[in-house]
Amino acid sequence: MGLLNGEYKGFSRRRFALGSVAAAGAVAAATGLSACGGDEDKKKSTGEPQEIDDESIVSVLDDYKAQDFGLAAAQTWTLPLGTVLFHCEGSWAAAMLTPESALHPNTLGVLSLASGALTTVREGAINGRLYTFFDVRCGSSAFAWVEIDYNTRDWKLYGQGFSEGTMTGEPAELDSGNADWEPPMFTVTGDSVIWQKMPLASGSKSSSASHCLRWHVGDKEGSEIWESIGRFATHPRVSDNMLTIVPRVLNEEGTYYGMTAIELDDDKHKQMDQLVLPASIRPFDAVYTGEQFVFSIEASYNYGGSLGNMGTYIGREGEPYVYFSREPAAWTSFNGNRFYIKTQSAHYIVDTAENTYDAISSPDHSLSFGDYPASEGHTTQFLVYSTVRDTQGIPQSVTARLFAI
Q1: Quick check: is 91 in a domain?
Q2: CA-wise closest residue to 197 among 217, 161, 172, 223
Q3: In a 3-state reduction of DSSP, which class is residue 63?
Q4: By the 8 A CB rule, do 283 and 299 touch?
Q5: DSSP state at residue 11
Q6: How many CA atoms lie within 13 A of 105 on its CB side?
Q7: What's the whole-model pTM score?
Q8: Between 9 and which of 4, 14, 117, 155 could a Cys-Cys bridge form, CB atoms 3.0 to 4.6 Å apart?
Q9: Which structural domain, as residue segments, surrounds residue 261?
Protein backbone atom coordinates (compact mmCIF):
# COMPACT_ATOMS: atom_id res chain seq x y z
CA MET A 1 0.00 0.00 0.00
CA GLY A 2 1.19 3.51 -0.74
CA LEU A 3 0.98 6.39 1.69
CA LEU A 4 -1.43 9.09 0.48
CA ASN A 5 -1.93 12.36 2.44
CA GLY A 6 -0.81 10.74 5.68
CA GLU A 7 -3.12 7.75 5.30
CA TYR A 8 -2.63 4.34 3.69
CA LYS A 9 -4.57 4.29 0.45
CA GLY A 10 -7.81 2.40 0.93
CA PHE A 11 -7.45 2.24 4.70
CA SER A 12 -7.37 4.79 7.50
CA ARG A 13 -8.06 4.90 11.20
CA ARG A 14 -11.20 6.90 10.37
CA ARG A 15 -12.34 4.22 7.92
CA PHE A 16 -11.55 1.55 10.48
CA ALA A 17 -13.76 3.41 12.96
CA LEU A 18 -16.48 3.63 10.33
CA GLY A 19 -16.43 -0.14 9.87
CA SER A 20 -16.48 -0.65 13.63
CA VAL A 21 -19.57 1.52 13.98
CA ALA A 22 -21.36 -0.34 11.18
CA ALA A 23 -20.56 -3.66 12.85
CA ALA A 24 -21.79 -2.39 16.20
CA GLY A 25 -24.99 -1.21 14.52
CA ALA A 26 -25.56 -4.61 12.95
CA VAL A 27 -25.13 -6.30 16.33
CA ALA A 28 -27.58 -3.83 17.87
CA ALA A 29 -30.15 -4.60 15.18
CA ALA A 30 -29.71 -8.34 15.65
CA THR A 31 -30.38 -8.00 19.37
CA GLY A 32 -33.41 -5.78 18.84
CA LEU A 33 -31.61 -2.80 20.38
CA SER A 34 -32.37 -4.14 23.82
CA ALA A 35 -30.43 -5.28 26.84
CA CYS A 36 -31.82 -8.79 26.57
CA GLY A 37 -28.42 -10.49 26.71
CA GLY A 38 -26.90 -11.66 29.96
CA ASP A 39 -24.79 -9.31 32.07
CA GLU A 40 -21.70 -11.19 31.01
CA ASP A 41 -22.32 -10.07 27.42
CA LYS A 42 -22.65 -6.41 28.32
CA LYS A 43 -19.66 -4.15 28.01
CA LYS A 44 -18.95 -2.47 31.31
CA SER A 45 -18.53 1.27 31.55
CA THR A 46 -15.87 2.69 33.82
CA GLY A 47 -17.73 5.85 34.78
CA GLU A 48 -14.64 7.85 33.84
CA PRO A 49 -14.98 11.10 31.84
CA GLN A 50 -14.52 10.44 28.13
CA GLU A 51 -12.20 12.73 26.18
CA ILE A 52 -11.61 11.56 22.62
CA ASP A 53 -9.94 12.93 19.49
CA ASP A 54 -11.05 13.09 15.86
CA GLU A 55 -9.73 9.61 15.13
CA SER A 56 -12.60 8.19 17.22
CA ILE A 57 -15.20 10.20 15.29
CA VAL A 58 -17.04 9.17 12.13
CA SER A 59 -18.59 12.27 10.55
CA VAL A 60 -21.89 11.59 8.80
CA LEU A 61 -21.55 14.57 6.46
CA ASP A 62 -17.96 13.65 5.54
CA ASP A 63 -17.94 9.85 5.60
CA TYR A 64 -21.51 8.80 4.82
CA LYS A 65 -23.23 8.93 1.43
CA ALA A 66 -26.30 11.08 0.80
CA GLN A 67 -29.09 8.85 -0.48
CA ASP A 68 -32.80 9.14 -1.21
CA PHE A 69 -34.54 6.72 1.16
CA GLY A 70 -37.89 7.30 -0.54
CA LEU A 71 -39.55 7.95 2.80
CA ALA A 72 -42.98 9.58 2.46
CA ALA A 73 -45.62 10.38 5.06
CA ALA A 74 -48.06 7.51 5.54
CA GLN A 75 -50.66 9.92 6.95
CA THR A 76 -51.05 13.71 6.92
CA TRP A 77 -53.59 15.58 9.05
CA THR A 78 -54.55 19.24 9.35
CA LEU A 79 -55.09 20.26 12.99
CA PRO A 80 -56.24 23.50 14.66
CA LEU A 81 -53.70 26.30 14.94
CA GLY A 82 -51.80 26.13 18.23
CA THR A 83 -51.88 22.33 18.61
CA VAL A 84 -48.68 20.91 20.17
CA LEU A 85 -48.12 17.13 20.10
CA PHE A 86 -46.15 14.71 22.32
CA HIS A 87 -45.80 11.04 21.36
CA CYS A 88 -44.14 8.79 23.95
CA GLU A 89 -45.30 5.36 22.81
CA GLY A 90 -48.18 3.40 21.34
CA SER A 91 -50.95 4.65 19.09
CA TRP A 92 -51.87 7.85 20.90
CA ALA A 93 -50.14 11.23 21.19
CA ALA A 94 -50.90 13.72 23.94
CA ALA A 95 -51.89 17.15 22.71
CA MET A 96 -51.93 20.67 24.08
CA LEU A 97 -54.88 22.34 22.38
CA THR A 98 -56.12 25.85 21.79
CA PRO A 99 -59.04 26.92 24.00
CA GLU A 100 -62.54 25.77 23.17
CA SER A 101 -64.04 28.64 25.15
CA ALA A 102 -62.99 31.87 26.85
CA LEU A 103 -63.10 30.04 30.19
CA HIS A 104 -59.87 28.13 29.56
CA PRO A 105 -56.50 29.37 28.20
CA ASN A 106 -55.82 25.90 26.78
CA THR A 107 -57.10 22.34 26.95
CA LEU A 108 -55.67 18.81 26.93
CA GLY A 109 -56.36 16.19 24.31
CA VAL A 110 -55.10 13.13 22.45
CA LEU A 111 -54.47 12.41 18.79
CA SER A 112 -55.19 8.93 17.42
CA LEU A 113 -52.33 7.78 15.19
CA ALA A 114 -54.74 5.33 13.58
CA SER A 115 -57.42 7.78 12.47
CA GLY A 116 -56.04 11.28 13.03
CA ALA A 117 -58.99 12.08 15.30
CA LEU A 118 -58.24 14.76 17.89
CA THR A 119 -60.20 14.42 21.15
CA THR A 120 -60.36 16.72 24.17
CA VAL A 121 -59.84 14.83 27.45
CA ARG A 122 -59.68 17.72 29.95
CA GLU A 123 -61.05 21.23 29.41
CA GLY A 124 -60.00 22.99 32.59
CA ALA A 125 -57.34 22.80 35.29
CA ILE A 126 -58.19 20.99 38.52
CA ASN A 127 -57.01 24.01 40.50
CA GLY A 128 -59.37 26.48 38.88
CA ARG A 129 -59.08 29.47 36.57
CA LEU A 130 -55.87 30.84 38.10
CA TYR A 131 -54.07 27.76 36.77
CA THR A 132 -53.36 26.74 33.19
CA PHE A 133 -51.92 23.62 31.60
CA PHE A 134 -48.13 23.77 31.28
CA ASP A 135 -47.12 20.38 29.86
CA VAL A 136 -48.68 17.00 29.03
CA ARG A 137 -47.71 13.39 28.13
CA CYS A 138 -49.51 10.07 27.72
CA GLY A 139 -48.50 6.42 27.50
CA SER A 140 -50.42 3.25 26.78
CA SER A 141 -52.08 3.22 30.23
CA ALA A 142 -51.26 6.54 31.92
CA PHE A 143 -51.77 10.24 31.30
CA ALA A 144 -49.92 13.07 33.07
CA TRP A 145 -49.94 16.85 33.04
CA VAL A 146 -48.65 19.91 34.89
CA GLU A 147 -50.84 22.83 35.96
CA ILE A 148 -49.24 26.19 36.80
CA ASP A 149 -50.23 29.58 38.20
CA TYR A 150 -48.05 32.00 36.24
CA ASN A 151 -48.58 34.76 38.77
CA THR A 152 -47.14 32.84 41.73
CA ARG A 153 -45.22 30.12 39.80
CA ASP A 154 -46.92 27.48 41.94
CA TRP A 155 -47.37 24.21 40.04
CA LYS A 156 -48.82 20.71 40.47
CA LEU A 157 -48.13 17.45 38.62
CA TYR A 158 -51.04 15.05 38.09
CA GLY A 159 -51.31 11.48 36.84
CA GLN A 160 -54.35 9.46 35.81
CA GLY A 161 -55.22 6.18 34.14
CA PHE A 162 -55.63 6.17 30.35
CA SER A 163 -57.12 3.65 27.94
CA GLU A 164 -57.86 3.88 24.20
CA GLY A 165 -58.10 7.66 24.14
CA THR A 166 -60.07 8.05 27.37
CA MET A 167 -59.06 8.99 30.92
CA THR A 168 -59.87 6.34 33.52
CA GLY A 169 -60.20 6.51 37.30
CA GLU A 170 -59.49 9.70 39.23
CA PRO A 171 -56.52 12.09 38.89
CA ALA A 172 -53.78 11.80 41.52
CA GLU A 173 -51.57 14.69 42.61
CA LEU A 174 -48.01 13.38 42.24
CA ASP A 175 -45.94 16.44 43.17
CA SER A 176 -46.09 20.18 43.68
CA GLY A 177 -43.79 23.15 44.01
CA ASN A 178 -43.49 26.91 44.15
CA ALA A 179 -41.27 29.50 42.50
CA ASP A 180 -38.16 27.89 44.01
CA TRP A 181 -38.77 24.66 42.07
CA GLU A 182 -38.92 24.22 38.33
CA PRO A 183 -42.04 22.66 36.82
CA PRO A 184 -40.99 19.02 36.39
CA MET A 185 -39.62 17.49 33.22
CA PHE A 186 -41.51 14.20 32.88
CA THR A 187 -42.41 11.33 30.61
CA VAL A 188 -44.99 8.54 30.61
CA THR A 189 -44.47 4.86 29.83
CA GLY A 190 -46.98 2.04 30.22
CA ASP A 191 -48.92 2.71 33.42
CA SER A 192 -46.27 4.90 35.05
CA VAL A 193 -45.18 8.53 35.17
CA ILE A 194 -41.48 9.42 35.60
CA TRP A 195 -40.48 12.95 36.55
CA GLN A 196 -37.57 15.03 37.76
CA LYS A 197 -38.00 17.53 40.59
CA MET A 198 -35.27 20.16 40.45
CA PRO A 199 -34.62 23.44 42.26
CA LEU A 200 -34.63 26.61 40.20
CA ALA A 201 -31.02 27.45 39.36
CA SER A 202 -31.37 31.00 40.69
CA GLY A 203 -33.85 30.40 43.53
CA SER A 204 -33.43 30.07 47.27
CA LYS A 205 -33.38 26.25 46.95
CA SER A 206 -30.64 26.20 44.29
CA SER A 207 -28.30 24.16 46.49
CA SER A 208 -30.92 21.43 47.09
CA ALA A 209 -30.59 18.01 45.49
CA SER A 210 -32.67 16.97 42.49
CA HIS A 211 -34.74 13.79 42.43
CA CYS A 212 -36.06 11.44 39.75
CA LEU A 213 -39.27 9.66 40.79
CA ARG A 214 -41.74 7.15 39.41
CA TRP A 215 -45.46 6.60 40.01
CA HIS A 216 -47.72 3.79 38.80
CA VAL A 217 -51.46 4.21 38.24
CA GLY A 218 -53.13 3.13 41.48
CA ASP A 219 -50.18 3.90 43.75
CA LYS A 220 -50.67 6.34 46.61
CA GLU A 221 -47.40 8.14 45.86
CA GLY A 222 -44.26 7.93 43.77
CA SER A 223 -40.96 6.30 44.69
CA GLU A 224 -37.46 7.63 44.11
CA ILE A 225 -35.26 6.28 41.30
CA TRP A 226 -32.24 8.59 41.58
CA GLU A 227 -30.90 11.57 43.51
CA SER A 228 -28.60 14.06 41.82
CA ILE A 229 -26.44 16.45 43.84
CA GLY A 230 -27.21 19.21 41.35
CA ARG A 231 -29.70 19.59 38.54
CA PHE A 232 -30.37 16.97 35.87
CA ALA A 233 -29.13 18.07 32.46
CA THR A 234 -31.88 16.70 30.21
CA HIS A 235 -35.46 15.55 29.99
CA PRO A 236 -35.98 11.92 31.13
CA ARG A 237 -36.40 9.61 28.13
CA VAL A 238 -37.79 6.07 28.05
CA SER A 239 -37.17 3.63 25.22
CA ASP A 240 -37.93 -0.10 25.29
CA ASN A 241 -38.35 -0.02 29.07
CA MET A 242 -34.98 1.64 29.54
CA LEU A 243 -34.88 5.05 31.23
CA THR A 244 -32.18 7.57 30.36
CA ILE A 245 -31.42 10.38 32.81
CA VAL A 246 -28.41 12.70 33.04
CA PRO A 247 -27.56 13.47 36.69
CA ARG A 248 -24.49 15.19 38.05
CA VAL A 249 -21.73 12.68 38.87
CA LEU A 250 -18.18 12.78 40.28
CA ASN A 251 -19.16 15.77 42.40
CA GLU A 252 -15.93 15.76 44.40
CA GLU A 253 -13.91 16.13 41.19
CA GLY A 254 -15.83 18.89 39.39
CA THR A 255 -18.91 19.43 37.24
CA TYR A 256 -19.58 16.24 35.31
CA TYR A 257 -22.74 14.90 33.70
CA GLY A 258 -23.25 11.15 33.36
CA MET A 259 -25.74 9.82 30.84
CA THR A 260 -27.23 6.91 32.76
CA ALA A 261 -29.37 4.02 31.48
CA ILE A 262 -31.69 2.44 34.06
CA GLU A 263 -33.75 -0.72 33.62
CA LEU A 264 -37.45 -0.27 34.43
CA ASP A 265 -38.50 -3.94 34.48
CA ASP A 266 -38.82 -3.94 38.25
CA ASP A 267 -38.61 -1.53 41.15
CA LYS A 268 -34.88 -2.19 41.65
CA HIS A 269 -34.09 0.29 38.86
CA LYS A 270 -30.74 -1.28 38.02
CA GLN A 271 -28.15 0.89 36.27
CA MET A 272 -27.30 -0.80 32.96
CA ASP A 273 -24.85 1.65 31.37
CA GLN A 274 -23.32 5.08 31.79
CA LEU A 275 -21.33 7.53 29.70
CA VAL A 276 -19.68 10.47 31.47
CA LEU A 277 -18.90 13.54 29.38
CA PRO A 278 -15.78 15.69 29.80
CA ALA A 279 -15.82 18.28 32.59
CA SER A 280 -18.45 21.05 32.32
CA ILE A 281 -19.94 19.72 29.05
CA ARG A 282 -23.69 19.46 29.39
CA PRO A 283 -25.76 17.44 26.89
CA PHE A 284 -28.84 18.95 25.27
CA ASP A 285 -30.65 15.59 25.19
CA ALA A 286 -29.86 11.87 25.55
CA VAL A 287 -31.50 8.48 25.05
CA TYR A 288 -30.22 4.91 25.36
CA THR A 289 -30.90 2.41 22.57
CA GLY A 290 -30.11 -0.70 24.59
CA GLU A 291 -26.56 -0.82 23.21
CA GLN A 292 -25.39 2.78 22.91
CA PHE A 293 -26.28 6.35 23.77
CA VAL A 294 -27.66 8.93 21.36
CA PHE A 295 -26.93 12.40 22.68
CA SER A 296 -26.61 15.94 21.43
CA ILE A 297 -24.48 18.93 22.38
CA GLU A 298 -26.15 22.31 21.87
CA ALA A 299 -23.03 24.50 21.81
CA SER A 300 -19.38 24.12 20.85
CA TYR A 301 -16.87 24.17 23.70
CA ASN A 302 -13.20 25.05 23.34
CA TYR A 303 -12.27 22.12 25.56
CA GLY A 304 -13.22 18.48 26.14
CA GLY A 305 -11.84 17.09 22.88
CA SER A 306 -14.15 15.96 20.08
CA LEU A 307 -17.11 15.43 22.44
CA GLY A 308 -17.09 19.18 23.03
CA ASN A 309 -18.33 19.98 19.52
CA MET A 310 -21.90 21.00 18.74
CA GLY A 311 -23.95 18.23 17.13
CA THR A 312 -25.45 14.78 17.70
CA TYR A 313 -23.46 11.66 18.66
CA ILE A 314 -24.23 7.93 18.56
CA GLY A 315 -21.94 5.62 20.54
CA ARG A 316 -20.77 4.33 23.89
CA GLU A 317 -17.67 4.33 26.04
CA GLY A 318 -14.64 2.73 24.38
CA GLU A 319 -16.09 2.70 20.86
CA PRO A 320 -16.10 5.12 17.89
CA TYR A 321 -18.87 7.73 17.73
CA VAL A 322 -21.01 8.56 14.73
CA TYR A 323 -21.21 12.35 14.63
CA PHE A 324 -23.75 14.60 12.88
CA SER A 325 -22.34 18.12 12.89
CA ARG A 326 -25.52 20.21 12.68
CA GLU A 327 -27.05 22.18 15.53
CA PRO A 328 -29.67 20.00 17.28
CA ALA A 329 -33.14 21.49 17.53
CA ALA A 330 -34.93 18.64 19.36
CA TRP A 331 -34.46 15.12 20.68
CA THR A 332 -33.55 12.11 18.51
CA SER A 333 -35.81 9.14 17.68
CA PHE A 334 -34.68 5.85 16.22
CA ASN A 335 -35.72 2.46 14.89
CA GLY A 336 -33.08 -0.21 14.35
CA ASN A 337 -30.05 1.42 12.74
CA ARG A 338 -31.94 4.50 11.56
CA PHE A 339 -31.80 7.66 13.65
CA TYR A 340 -34.03 10.70 13.14
CA ILE A 341 -32.22 13.93 13.99
CA LYS A 342 -33.92 17.34 14.02
CA THR A 343 -32.06 20.45 12.85
CA GLN A 344 -33.43 23.93 12.28
CA SER A 345 -34.39 23.25 8.66
CA ALA A 346 -35.14 19.52 8.37
CA HIS A 347 -35.37 16.08 9.92
CA TYR A 348 -32.32 14.01 8.95
CA ILE A 349 -32.29 10.22 8.75
CA VAL A 350 -28.93 8.60 9.51
CA ASP A 351 -28.48 4.89 8.76
CA THR A 352 -25.45 3.59 10.67
CA ALA A 353 -25.61 0.14 9.05
CA GLU A 354 -25.61 1.36 5.45
CA ASN A 355 -23.47 4.48 6.12
CA THR A 356 -26.04 6.69 4.40
CA TYR A 357 -28.23 9.66 5.26
CA ASP A 358 -31.23 11.54 3.90
CA ALA A 359 -33.48 14.44 4.92
CA ILE A 360 -37.23 14.86 5.35
CA SER A 361 -38.20 18.29 4.04
CA SER A 362 -40.61 20.50 5.97
CA PRO A 363 -44.04 21.42 4.58
CA ASP A 364 -44.31 24.58 2.48
CA HIS A 365 -44.79 27.84 4.41
CA SER A 366 -43.62 26.32 7.70
CA LEU A 367 -39.89 27.02 8.02
CA SER A 368 -40.17 30.23 10.02
CA PHE A 369 -42.16 28.39 12.71
CA GLY A 370 -40.34 25.06 12.57
CA ASP A 371 -41.24 21.45 11.93
CA TYR A 372 -40.75 19.47 15.13
CA PRO A 373 -40.81 15.82 16.18
CA ALA A 374 -43.51 14.61 18.55
CA SER A 375 -42.14 11.04 18.84
CA GLU A 376 -39.25 10.14 21.11
CA GLY A 377 -37.08 7.09 21.74
CA HIS A 378 -37.52 3.83 19.83
CA THR A 379 -40.55 4.09 17.60
CA THR A 380 -41.97 2.55 14.44
CA GLN A 381 -44.25 5.57 14.00
CA PHE A 382 -42.44 8.88 13.63
CA LEU A 383 -44.86 11.77 14.24
CA VAL A 384 -43.91 15.35 13.36
CA TYR A 385 -45.92 18.58 13.33
CA SER A 386 -45.49 22.11 12.00
CA THR A 387 -47.30 25.44 11.96
CA VAL A 388 -48.19 26.39 8.39
CA ARG A 389 -48.85 29.89 7.07
CA ASP A 390 -51.35 30.91 4.41
CA THR A 391 -50.38 32.72 1.20
CA GLN A 392 -50.30 36.04 3.08
CA GLY A 393 -47.85 34.70 5.65
CA ILE A 394 -50.39 34.42 8.48
CA PRO A 395 -50.31 31.25 10.64
CA GLN A 396 -53.26 29.18 9.55
CA SER A 397 -53.13 25.60 10.87
CA VAL A 398 -50.91 22.77 12.10
CA THR A 399 -49.88 19.97 9.75
CA ALA A 400 -49.15 16.62 11.44
CA ARG A 401 -47.34 13.92 9.45
CA LEU A 402 -46.89 10.28 10.41
CA PHE A 403 -44.03 8.25 8.91
CA ALA A 404 -43.97 4.46 9.14
CA ILE A 405 -40.34 3.63 9.90
Answers
A1: no
A2: 223
A3: helix
A4: no
A5: -
A6: 12
A7: 0.88
A8: 4
A9: 13-78+237-386
